[in-house]
Amino acid sequence: MDITHCHYHPAQPATWNCAPCQRPYGDCCIPLNADAPDSGPVCPLCQGALTFLGAANTAQPFWERIPQFFRYGLQPGPLAFSGALALASLFMPRFFLLWILLFSVATKYLYSVIEASSQAEREAPTLLSAFVGEGFSLFFKQLVVFFLAFGALWLASDFHSEMVFWVVNLTIMLLMPASIIRLALEKELSAALSPEQVGQVIKAMGWRYLILCAFLFALWQSPSYVTFLLSHGLPRVVLVPVAAFCFGYFGVVMCAMMGYAVFQYQEPLGYTIAGEDALEGFPEREWRRRRALAEAEVRLKEGQGGSALETLAEALDREPGDLVLNERFHRLLFGLNARERCLRHLAHYLPLAAQANPALAATAWSNARTLQPDYLPDDPLICERVAAALSERHKHREAIGLLRNLHLRFPDYPQVPRAYLLAANILAEGLGQLEPASKLLGFIRSRYPQTPLMGEVTKLEQTLARLRGNA
Ligand SMILES: [Zn+2]
Ligand SMILES: [Zn+2]
Q1: How far is CA 229 from the centre of its chain?
Q2: Taking ligand 2, which is a single-atom ion, which protein residues have CB atoms under 5 Å away?
Q3: What's the whole-number average pLDDT of the chain?
Q4: Among residues 165, 162, 197, which one has the least CA distance to residue 178?
Q5: What's the pLDDT band for 306 if we cut at 50, 70, 90?
Q6: Nearest ligand to the CA atom of 8
Q7: What is the CB-side half-sphere exposure of residue 9 using CA atoms within 13 A?
Q8: Angle 229-235-238 (CA atoms, 0-180°, nearest 5)?
Q9: Ligand nearest to the Cα of 31, by number
Q10: pLDDT digits (tens, 9 = 90+) for 400-455
Q11: What is the C-alpha separation between 271 and 202, in angstroms, rounded?
């Protein structure tokens, strides 16, 4: 199974799907409403209910999480479980029924690890949980599976062919994890033995199932390996509990890994489980805003520019002062070449952008000039801010154009000296026009002698004089 990505954002894993539209969506396109967590999200295109894909596409592959599985086994629950096995191996009387009971509790515990792990629960089940509830029969069901496997092996050995024996042996070893997973999740013997259900687990994981088997095989060998390493010189009374403890610990690690593999491949396995992190929603207002932005983007990418516009216009009715919504709306209008509407919207957008983000205002102004070459904002402050932003982008000529004759266009504007000082700076530094810059400074000096900016005017005049002297 390969990861499905958002149809509109190829780097984002898909978390939702619209079957009629055949569109997988990532969280990028489907913001959730925290104020109405029960109302499921709808498709941005058809407004139909979406199918949740769970964490199938966001889950980290199990082979990248090996250290986490080993750490999982070090939690209080698994350690208590392994410790109990070690103690039992030392002190429990050789009483058949008692041992059957021990095995059925142990099996129940291990399978509850598979189950918890398949739900991406980080916390391991407590040892106590193995003694209550249902599932004590799991051991017997598992025993039946093992007996059948041994039966098959026994039959195979009858052929007196090493080949046949090993083929059967290998097949059993390969099928066993899938069968155990089925038994742990369905708790039915029929599921563990059903070729269809066992096959589905293998099919869902594809060749990665072999990786799982390889890891499980290595882990399965680990307790015997550890015991072998310690077997020299250690008395039996130490060795046996150590072996039992290792068996418990590695058993938990194996089960955690199998469970997580189910979590990772939940979608083809027919389960839907949310990710480890709960789905986070936004407060209603923010959610509406984000939904409008996402929907507009989806519609635009589908070639439905008109609908995208309406979506944004509707959102702007609610949030007229939102810079991002306005910016998106402006870009869309300009992109769609909706000249009249774009110019009308600019009257609202340009002041907003000039106030909050002059760089955006500079872009909007350039766009406006494309639509209408003599476009000029009707507010001197906006002219000033946009000119500064343009000059920062080295568009000095355009910046000067915005400031030209400001004192005639807006005779009542009190900040003309400031705007002209800016213009003089742009002329001198940006365009290297020292003469016009000096003239402009002279104009400020004669026309606005009371301006508090006179100190700066003098400073710039001195700089200009020095530059001319050098030239
Ligand atoms: Zn997306
Ligand atoms: Zn749809």
Answers
A1: 44
A2: 18, 21, 43, 45-46, 48
A3: 90
A4: 197
A5: very high
A6: 1
A7: 15
A8: 80
A9: 1
A10: 999 999 999 999 999 999 999 999 999 999 998 999 999 999 999 999 998 999 99
A11: 15
Question: Ligand 2 centre and the CA of 16: distance in Å?
Answer: 11
pLDDT in tens, 316-337: 999 999 999 999 999 999 999 9
pTM score of the predicted model: 0.66
Ligand lying nearest the CA atom of residue 290:
1
The residue behind tokens 């269809």 is 196
Residue 108 clears pLDDT 50, i.e. is over it:
yes
d(CA 467, CA 36): 66
Take residue 304 and report the two structure tokens written for it: 């439905």
pLDDT value at residue 1: 46
Pairing mode, strands 51-52 and 14-18: antiparallel
Neighbours of 125 (CB within 10 A): 22
- Return the amino acid letter for 45: L
Cβ atoms within 10 Å, residue 309: 19
Q: Are 157 and 180 in contact (CB under 8 A)?
A: no
Find residue 373's DSSP bridge partners: none
pLDDT at 13: 87
For the record, the structure tokens of 432 come out as 């290297």
What is Dmax (Cα atoms) for the chain? 115
pLDDT on residue 55? 76
For residue 116, give the 3-state DSSP assignment: helix
Amino acid in position 296:
A
Q: In angstroms, rounded to a whole number, what is the distance separating the alpha carbons of residues 318 and 294? A: 16
Determine the length of the chain.
471
What are phi and psi for residue 46, nearest 5 degrees? -110, -5
